[in-house]
């Protein structure tokens, strides 16, 4: 069986109609690939359409304020992708006169573009014979060839990349790469793959040996860290509050949040008065402090779980200017704060 030809034949019959497949435009392909990193198509498609509407070309994206880009990204997570997207757009406009790099090597120089994304754009848009390897590709190859090398090990990354190159249809690399990714997404799925209708069912080694559920193999992740966040939601008589912009290279860089107290465990109501940051922020004339959610909201990130509670702090007036509550919706915020704003309903 010719693996590549069988794959492309399956693709031409079964591929989903997606907007970025309508034309081989590097801006559209790049945007879709960055949005769909670590994101399902069902979740990412509305964001893709939102971005294309807001920024129809790389010039519009480059000229947009970063906060505007982060606001449109809000809810997708992994905000470094949005920051890298914006940085790369500015580089393309300012250094390359708005012209995308025309090969894999040049694409790799863009901020946030790694081997997979560069391979996808170069093969689809420029017909360059470079193989993609993403989660879907790992799964298809691991099952078909019954490879138990961990896909997140150095040896596994090297082995699967070499195999993907060997199998690549060099005359039709764009369709080949889209075929194997699409095949992994809708046929050779992580759970309940459609083996009964699979064109490779007669030659798939994992299916023959009953190893479908065991492959691909991944090394165990590091232990998940627990963090305890306490957001101070100041409320004044004139319906103003306080937001701060996160700095540094940690999670949610550049997004806005209520003043934060991070503690080693769940904070007891009486303990908040012993915290120096609270005392500095609260000042005098605190009228009432109410714990909005007794049970913490658990926000799960890849290597950490955030146990989050919101403290409502009522004052006659705030030190400094504050932000009118009706303007909060204009700021890019982490999704857990966006959810709080909707639930509390003092802005939306």
Automatic annotation (TrEMBL):
It catalyses: Hydrolyzes free adenine bases from 7,8-dihydro-8-oxoguanine:adenine mismatched double-stranded DNA, leaving an apurinic site. The keyword Cell inner membrane does not apply. Residues 35-186 form the HhH-GPD domain. One of its GO terms (molecular function) is 8-oxo-7,8-dihydroguanine DNA N-glycosylase activity. It holds the Pfam family HhH-GPD. Signal peptide: none annotated. Its EC number is 3.2.2.31. It is an enzyme of class 3 (hydrolase). InterPro entries: A/G_AdeGlyc_MutY (IPR005760), DNA_glycosylase (IPR011257), HhH-GPD_domain (IPR003265), HhH_base_excis_C (IPR023170), MIG/MutY (IPR044298), MutY_C (IPR029119), NUDIX_hydrolase-like_dom_sf (IPR015797). Keywords: 4Fe-4S, DNA damage, DNA repair, Glycosidase, Hydrolase, Iron, Iron-sulfur, Metal-binding. Binds 1 [4Fe-4S] cluster. Gene3D superfamilies: Helix-hairpin-Helix base-excision DNA repair enzymes (C-terminal), Hypothetical protein, domain 2, Nucleoside Triphosphate Pyrophosphohydrolase. Adenine glycosylase active on G-A mispairs. MutY also corrects error-prone DNA synthesis past GO lesions which are due to the oxidatively damaged form of guanine: 7,8-dihydro-8-oxoguanine (8-oxo-dGTP). Belongs to the Nth/MutY family. This is Adenine DNA glycosylase. It comes from Antarcticibacterium flavum.
